[in-house]
Structure formats: structure tokens, C-alpha cells
Amino acid sequence: MALDAFAYIPLLATVFVAIVLFALLMAINKKRSARISFIVFLSIVILAGGVIYTLVHPGLMILSMSIFCAVFIFLPYCIITVMLPAKKIEKEDEDVEIKPTESVAQVPATNIELSDTQKDLLDLSLDFVVFSEKSFSDRKDGLAHVLEHINKTLINITHADGGAILLIDDFEDIISVKSFSGTFPPPYKLPSDLPHKPIRVETSFKFATFPLRDNIFGEVALGGKPELITKPELDDRIYQNSPEDFLRCGSYIFIPMKIGDTVIGEFALARKLGNPVFSEEEFDAAVTLSNFGAVSIHEFTAVQDVVEHNESAKESDIACKIQQLLLQKKMPSIPSADVSVYNSLADGVCGDFYDIIVSRKDRISFTITDVVGKGMNSLMVMIMMRSMLRLIVNTKQTAGTILTWINHGISTESAIDHFASMALINFDSTTKRINYATGGSAPIWLYSAETNEMSKISEQSEPVGVEKSTVYEEHSRQLKTGDILVMYTDGLVESLDENGVQYSIDNLKKIVKLNHAKSAKDITSLIKSDLKQFNGTVRQHDDQTLLVVKIL
To answer: In this predicted structure, which of 154-163, 187-196, 267-276, 301-310 has the lowest mean pLDDT?
Structure first.
């Protein structure tokens, strides 16, 4: 809690600075020593309000939205101001003396008049902000709505026949169409198997993906400069499909979507052949408005990423807390066996669980499971598997049959991603005999007191939840006093040291063999200490679970 309190210092400092800045601007405006736009005041008020709300109600949503709105209210004002022509001050009399006591405030202020076009562009840019804010509540389709709105606005302001917005995927070096409206004669070579029909060509373009080379979209994006093409027949980057008239290329505007020096996408506008080509004025207007659109799209996705990450972290935190409630804290008393468990949970993973179920003297079940995935999804699968296991294990079914039934139940759930590695041992304390089965990579190792050797007695098989028709093989083995069963998840033996070297099963086997005479609890503690010493300060990214059963 003490550290959390320090996190509020930057927020309090921001409020203080905003109040001081507001007071100074009010004083400047009152003295008329400079002209301060109401947009500046509005931006500061919105920012300060968001910070104050965050101090009272902790959370990133309102703070993110206030920063988002403040930036977008102030940004168009700055851009329009930069675009205005510089005012020249002419000297009427070279011999005019300015008295030292003459105040600058006595010089009349110059009123800046915006042209009708500039006013329209400013209004449209502010409209982008308002529309983005309204669309933000729609997490699923919000970005699609923003792209569509910006695209249609660009089409209207330039009187284009059609337009598209494409975004770059940095991981695959491709640029993909994310929004499309109107008629857009394709300036690229159509697939050979695509019928030359308007509806088929438009549908294909809506979902088109292009490499960043050898096509007009990729070349303009890499070039990073807006381009007006009025004679496509003279541009070798434009491909003319034929022979249908609706495929014939007219004029185009391509504008890279830039944030600083980074191109994140592209705006594309088209006019059909036979219609007047785009003018320079329309091109300039499209470039100016595209700058606002690019920032709007970038800030929308940035705020969305922050909020989604925050919500994902909260979801994972809740899932992990539920997971901890499900795990056994106290080992049950088991005849003829000594049991110990080590479990370390990685932040946000929530994939491991273990269970020890005492049904009767001839049926004591040990299980350890590693669910693939993270957060709430893995928790749901974990709860489903745990519930089915506790229900079925009380019957007389064997380990292989129990795993097969659980697999069938999990595999039929198509609404979630689901599969896991699972090891199940049914122990008969009256005869010291085990019946076991495994699914996936969850192993079972046995230390033999008779041979002083440690061997893997399980076989790797299909993970649980992949294919509902999978049938799991089962095995039986007679144990003796002093034998030790060891079960663990991948996160334990695959944990890394500072040099990226894995802990490995060899280290675990060595500790078990050297300390086989000790209790299960002591063996588990020694493995835990050795593991932590091996890992050092390296943060682990997977749950670690170990179950040790020593036969008495």
C-alpha cells in the first residue's frame, strides 16, 4: 500500500501544474499581453478534470479518455495555426521612436481570420474526435466504425467515387484493406480466377492484402509521400485490368498515414475514368484532413490498447485468485503414503492445478494438470476438468477411462480454446498398487528404492481436449516401501537461469536420488530451494507445480 501511494504523486503534481498554468493564462489574458485561445483553456480543464477523477476513482479509462480528448481538441488548433500564412509587419515611418515606457499591450492585436476551407477542415477534424469518443464504447467494432467514418468523410470532401483505408501489419510486412466504400477501379492486377463482375471485384478488394512492394499501395506506403495520379497510363505502378469499362483506371490520390516518421497505413481515393480528375486543391484538402484522420486512428488504437491491457490484467488477477482458492492448502492424511506439493504461480498465467482426492482406502487419486492458455480462459477449463474429475473418480472406473471421459467432455465445448496436459494416478493404499494414465506432456517419474534408479513410467500422448475420440491407455504397477512418485508441470523443469539455460529434469532427479531417505516434504523443500537458487532473479513466465508421493 505504501508503494501504491507514491504512484499518486505524478497525478497530484499534474493537477497542481494544471491549476498554476490555468491561473497564469487567465492573468495573461486579463492583462492582454498575449491572445490566449479558449481551446487552450478547455484542453487544460479536461486534462485536470480527468486526473482529479482518477485520484478519486482509480482506473485508467477516464484518465485515458481525458488525455485523448485534450490532445484532439488542442491538436487541430495547432495544425491550423501552423498552416496560416505569416503576417508581415510594415514600417510606416522609419523615424518613429518607441519610448522605453511604452507597453507592448498598447499595440492592437491582429485578428486571425480563417478561410472557409480551413474552417471546414477544422470542423471535420473536431468531428473525428467526437466520433472517435462515441465509438470507443464499442470495443468489438469501434475501430471499424472510426475507419468507415473517416473514409466516407474523405470521399465527400474530395468528391471521390470511392475510397479505402489500409493498415500495415509490421509483423508480416503487408498492407491490408480495413475500410472500403464506393467505387474503386482496381489499380492492381486482379487474381486470375476472379470473375470480372463489379460485385465480385468489390468484395475481393474489401478483404485484399498486398505486399509492401510491386503494387501501388505498397510502393506509396514505403515512399512515405502523398501522390496525386491523374494519368495512370503513364505510371508503371498502376496495373490496367481489361477489357471491362468498370475496371478502367481514372485518377487516384494515395496518402501515407504517418505518425512522426512511421507509416502505419494509407488513405486511397479514386475517380472513375470519364469523370474529372482530382484537382490540386482537392489533393491538398485530402492531405490536410488525412493528417487529422491518421492521428485520430492512431490515438484511438493506442487508448484502446491501454484499456484492453488494463482490463486483461484485472481479469487475470481475478482468475489467479480463484485458482488459488481451488488449490488444496492442507495435505490430507493418507495411509501408506507421504505427500507434499510445491506450487508457484506466474503472474497472469493461471494454468496449473493439482488435486488429491481421498475416495476410500483402495482409491486415492493424485492428479496434476497444466492447462494451455492464460487468465480466465484457462481458469474455465481448469474448473471444468476439476469438476468432472471429482465426480468420476468416486466410481470404479480406471485412470484411462476417467481421462477418456474428461477428454470427451472438454472436447465438445467449442466456445473456448481448450486443451491441457494431465496426469492421473489412482493409488490403492491397501495393496500399494497404482493405476495411472497421462494425456499430453504431463510426466510421471518413479524412484525405485530397490534399484536406486529413477525412471519415467508414463508415455506422452494426445493432450486432453484436442480430439474427442481419443482413448487414453492406462498402466498398473506394484510399488514398494521407499518408492517415490514425482509429478510436475513443464514450467518447473523449463524455468530459466540468467543465461537462458533450463533447470531440466536432471537436476530434479539428482535431488530425489540423493535425498530418497528423507520425507516427501523435505524432498519438495530441497527441490524448491535448488530451483530458486538456479533461477536467481530471473522472472518466470509459467506456473510451476511439483507433487511428490513417497510410499511408506
So the answer is: 301-310
